[in-house]
Amino acid sequence: MALAATVPLAACAPPAPQRPAAPQNDYLVFYAQGRHADAVHAVERAGGTMVGEDARLGYLLARSAGGGFTEGVGADQAVVGVSSDRRIGYATARPSVHQEARAAFPDASSFTKSAAEPLAGRQWDMRMIGADRANATVPGSRQVLVGVIDTGVDGKHPDIAPNFNRELSRNFVTDRPKDENGETLDGPCEAEGCKDPADVDDDGHGTHVASTIASPINGIGIAGVAPGVQIVNLRAGQDSGFFFLKPSLDALAHAADIGVDVVNMSYYVDPWLFNCRNNPADTRKQQLEQRAVITGMQRALDYARRKGVTLISALGNGGIDLGRPKVDDQSPGYPKGDEKERKIDNSCVNVPAESDGVISVSAVGPTGRKAVYSDYGVEQTDLAAPGGDILDGEGARADRGILAAAPERVLRATGRIDAAGNPRGADVVKDCKNGRCSYYQYLEGTSMASPHATGVAAILISRFGKPGEGGLQLDPDTTEQLLYKSAAQKACPTPRRHVYTIYNKTETHECEGDKADNGFYGHGIVDAWKAATVEP
């Protein structure tokens, strides 16, 4: 009988611990025109796997666990930019109230109610641009679709619901409870799979924007610039207010494909506040990422514009002359703590505000002066609009901001209303009718200026648009020229070097250009009344 085989001692030892598999990351790989096949091969050579693509915008969606994937695939001449599929943006809104100064603001009872919308008396912004008069003449057509690319829209808000198009609305983001370093980002998920419904806004920013554009005339709260048009939620922002590149691309492409007439983009794309193609202060990987932002967004914007979408963006809230940027110490802004100081110049761009084909809007306060926080630049500013400025006058007052709808759940979560539903400061206003209450909040920012221009564009499209996909359509070039033609021209201040006082400190911004087109106001402050009456 044969003896049993001897078992080596090593085989009896406990198995060696297995190394955890390297995490898989997704990347957007943008390829040069006509180089699709070459880019696919480049992905494979760099150790990546194709998991998707978008031929409309010319990029591959690749997956790889290799730490050097970006540099590897980016070395191929067929590839023009590479970005990891993660957060690259932040909404451009500012609170209209500082915690330490709330006591100085007037109480809500200091305002009288209007015979029209109950809170119309608070809307200095609508009176400034003649929207209160235009509403009675050209409220806007329901055949006009306005896309809000933002943090979402509260489609159930009483002062938004009548104009909210739920069928066409989409949410392109998945909430992320924590960032890649384990720090809180969006917080606990509210919906199954961390995917909120398309009528939810857990941040409030997008709801405020949508309300400014198109809150209806319904005897509740306020009226928007174009209270008769439809709002389409194209959510690209996280609950936390951050944006990722791919959702931004998806939102623009969807807007184009469903016949949206005009989109509002009240956010900037980063982690690079300024995107530079070849800054020597950046690594090769960082350069490729910034090229991806510039290239990818431009392709999406071009695609949308070719299909009839007018593109309107907030200019930014850094108080920066965008024609003469010198230092960027806020980038890369994600993950938190990665920021570095680097020298920049005018070849570096803020996206989408400085992207081609985009109408960029600066902000003014109640007196019509450029808001202290608003970015500017003779090459960059196309139009101006009310964005609010709590410091535009003596002291600081919340009612110098822009009042628009706010989701009740956000106000509760942030402590702006108490358990009984009462506002905890003059920045929040409650309006009740027939036992149902709705809420509004004062905010300031170029985020608040941009939707005023978007609403005026909607009025023009309502008047001059022709039947097309989605309803009415008007060529974006025509819409742009009519916006400029109907704007109220405003000259630079005298002296041109305007000195702002900010809590006992001063800051100087210099305005360049003439009355017809300058760095503070562009072609002028948008005018809804003129848009309702102007001839082409």
UniProtKB/TrEMBL annotation:
Top-rank taxon: Bacteria
Residues at the active site: D150 (charge relay system), H205 (charge relay system), S447 (charge relay system)
Entries under Gene3D superfamilies matching the protein: Peptidase S8/S53 domain
Occurrences of domain Peptidase S8/S53 (ranges): 142-524
Annotated segments matching region Disordered: 323-342
PROSITE patterns: SUBTILASE, SUBTILASE_ASP, SUBTILASE_HIS, SUBTILASE_SER
GO BP annotations listed: proteolysis
Keyword Metal-binding in record: no
GO MF entry, a single one: serine-type endopeptidase activity
Annotated InterPro entries: Peptidase_S8/S53_dom (IPR000209), Peptidase_S8/S53_dom_sf (IPR036852), Peptidase_S8_Asp-AS (IPR023827), Peptidase_S8_His-AS (IPR022398), Peptidase_S8_Ser-AS (IPR023828), Peptidase_S8_subtilisin-like (IPR050131), Peptidase_S8_subtilisin-rel (IPR015500)
Assigned keywords, A-Z: Hydrolase, Protease, Serine protease
Family: Belongs to the peptidase S8 family.
Protein name as it appears in the record: Peptidase S8 and S53 subtilisin kexin sedolisin
Naturally occurring in which organism (per UniProt): Nonomuraea longispora
